[in-house]
Amino acid sequence: MLEIADLEVAFETRMGHVKVVSDFSLSVARGECVGIVGESGAGKTQALLAVMGLLPRGARVSGSARLQGEELLGRGAGALDEFRGARIAMIFQDPLTALTPHMRVGDQIAEVLVRHRRLSWSAGRERALELLRAVHIADAERRLRQYPHELSGGMRQRVMIAMALACEPDVLIADEPTTALDVTVQAQILALLAELKRTRGMSLVLVTHDLGVIAGLADRVAVMYAGRLVEQGTARAVLKAPRHPYTRALLDSMPRLDVPSSEPLRAIRGQPPDPRALPAGCAFHPRCDLAADLCRSARPRLRPTGDGMVACHRPLGAAAGEEGPTS
Amino acid sequence: MSEVATPIESGLWTDVWQRLRRRRSVHAAAGVLALLVFLAWIGPALSPHAYDALDWERMGAPPQLEAAHWLGTDRLGRDLFVRTLHALRLSLLIGLLAALVSVLIGITWGAVAGYFGGRVDAVMMRTVDVLYSLPYVFIVIVLASLFERGSLAALFLAIGAVGWLTMARIVRGQTLALRRREFIEAAIACGAGSGSILVRHVVPNVIGPVVVYATLTVPQMILFESFLSFLGLGVQEPLASLGSLINDGAREMESAPWLLVFPAGVLMLLLVSFSVLGDGLRDALDPRAE
Question: Do A145 and B9 touch (CB under 8 A)?
Answer without folding.
Answer: yes
